[in-house]
């Protein structure tokens, strides 16, 4: 896919992987709209990168509808929608899981993906084309026994993505699942003191993961599912 002049919408676009993706799409001459909850962080990112911004919470469908409406009003279409926003929570046994935190993880990681995709489809169905990219996790294949809720949220997102791909095939809308291993993002900042240095250092840089995602999209026929792992003895598998 030639990314020049493509209209790309990214949720969770002010930090980490989302910001790295925005920067790479700009390098490809695409038009980018990012969304996040923090107006201040959005404005700072707009000043730095020169992109369009729209405040929004992925757990609120009206906000995702507003984001889609904003992108179409500005650029007349949406070519690529990336559901990137996600959160995690501390490792814990099931007895010690905070139920309120657990609900929030499911709301962001699953329903955020659901609401984002549904808002994009409203316009992509009319266009009769489009690409939805859901950033999921390697945990959707390999759960962690002390990351019960996060793993479950990603399994749900993976199942949704696979079913959605089947549903949208007749509409000429592609649905791509991205399953990265651990990434060095702000998600882990609050937990970093509890991690072994090697646990954090072995995670991938956001830019590295973003490059693999963009490389896949630039293929004549992008892969529908990609697993991204660190290169230190591990391969990057495209399936």
UniProtKB/TrEMBL annotation:
<dbReference type="InterPro" id="IPR036291">
    <property type="entry name" value="NAD(P)-bd_dom_sf"/>
</dbReference>
<dbReference type="Pfam" id="PF00106">
    <property type="entry name" value="adh_short"/>
</dbReference>
<protein>
    <submittedName>
        <fullName>Glucose 1-dehydrogenase 2</fullName>
    </submittedName>
</protein>
<keyword id="KW-0521">NADP</keyword>
<dbReference type="GO" id="GO:0016491">
    <property type="term" value="F:oxidoreductase activity"/>
</dbReference>
<keyword id="KW-0560">Oxidoreductase</keyword>
<dbReference type="InterPro" id="IPR020904">
    <property type="entry name" value="Sc_DH/Rdtase_CS"/>
</dbReference>
<comment type="similarity">
    <text>Belongs to the short-chain dehydrogenases/reductases (SDR) family.</text>
</comment>
<dbReference type="InterPro" id="IPR002347">
    <property type="entry name" value="SDR_fam"/>
</dbReference>
